[in-house]
Amino acid sequence: MTNSIKPKKLAFCITCMNRLYHLQQTLKKNILDNYLPNDVEFVLLDYNSTDGLEQWVQHTMQAHINSGILVYYKTTDPEVYHRSHSRNMAFRLANAKILCNLDADNFLGKGFAAFIIQEFATHDTIFCTNNHSFNDTFGRVSVRSEDFMAIRGYNEALKSYGYEDNDFMNRLMKHGLQPVCFQDPEFYHYISHSDTSRVSEEHIAKNLSEMYIAYVNPYTSIILLRYNDNSTEQYTLVDNVYVYGFSEVPLSIYEAYLDEKVRIVLQGDVVKGRWDADKELPTIEVENHTFYKVQDNDFRIRTIVLLTQAINFNEVYKQMKNNTIVNPDGFGKGSAFKNFDVSHKIIIS
User: Fold this and answer.
1) pLDDT score recorded for residue 254
2) Which of 138, 250, 285, 289 could, after both became Cys, cross-link 214 (CB 3.0–4.6 A)?
3) Which residues are bridge partners to 181 per DSSP?
4) Helices in the chain by DSSP H: which ranges?
5) What's the pLDDT band for 248 if we cut at 50, 70, 90?
């Protein structure tokens, strides 16, 4: 996709699927705290929300759209939230020299845009991120558009929550860039929320009917998922921290996040099948293991988070080991409408 309009210096790229309750708190304030309409744009990609996001933007944010600081896009294609694809799509829709991922629950803080613009004006081979405090600002990564394109965006093989930011930053460093961290406490405010909000729109949580768990030993568990269509997936999780301890933690924080010895990881491949039972059962027997049905929703959500992190880590580790190309068939593909103009569909190929 090409854009003939002169690019701005910086675009904050927000993706949102049914998180209007967060945007209602953050979007206006972020714009007002960083109101540089000649230099900055906020790109909001409505990832097929059904919670009234489009109506809210149209009724309350039109003045910011008119000023050019806010650009609203909506895609009606996705059925579930795919964080890597949605970010790639928003980044490619943006028209700016610097691209910054901005989660819907983040407050930028006053002057963050000016800070980022200045950092990139004075350094050539950098990307910018937080100070590794591992809170909900960890994904606020700023990168030049040409570097984003050069590393082929966020890894769309990572379909759920976990490691997409780590993988992205690791590939930026392999591309020759150095991380620069923002330090001002003003830039670190965000809305605390549950893991349910974090993963509820993603594939597993949205399609899961039942979860069962079998305990093999103190560091190994088997997770059995039954989906609404009666398909099943079975994963074996191993706590490598228990197995290896912390004796070999790498020096680099990015390497540490990509080291299998300090992670809960998958053992073997996913086992797929079909559900044969006629009714829900509190326990089932599979291959000499007793599986207990997970009844507590909080435990179920926490397990989904651990599982998706392990699945994504496994994919990153495999790609790094085999030195395979990320997103070989392209990235951020899709269609969207801009600023409520449904007569003109923008195609990203």
Assistant:
1) 60
2) 289
3) 129
4) 20-33, 53-60, 62-67, 83-93, 112-122, 145-150, 164-174, 195-199, 203-207, 240-244, 253-256, 297-322
5) low
Torsion of CA 43, 47, 50, 52, to 10 degrees: 0
d(CA 11, CA 308) in angstroms, rounded, equals 29
The answer to whether the beta carbons of residues 74 and 46 sit under 8 Å apart is: yes
Residue 240: CB partners within 8 Å, gap ≥ 6?
A: 219, 260, 261, 262, 263, 264, 265
Q: For the chain, list the domains and their CATH numbers.
A: 8-191+330-348 (3.90.550.10), 197-322 (no CATH)
pLDDT tens digits for 76-95? 999 999 999 999 999 999 99
Both structure tokens of 326: 């990320």
Among 35-49, 120-134, 261-275, 305-319, name the one with the lowest average pLDDT: 261-275
The answer to whether 138 and 151 are in contact (CB under 8 A) is no
CA distance 316 to 305: 16
Of 102, 144, 166, nearest to 309 (Cα)? 166
Conformation bin of residue 200: beta by default, left when phi > 0, alpha when psi is -120 to 50? alpha
Total length of the chain: 349
Report DSSP letters for 137-176, one per residue.
TTT--EEEHHHHHHTTSS-TT--SSSSHHHHHHHHHHHTT
Mean pLDDT of 243-269: 70
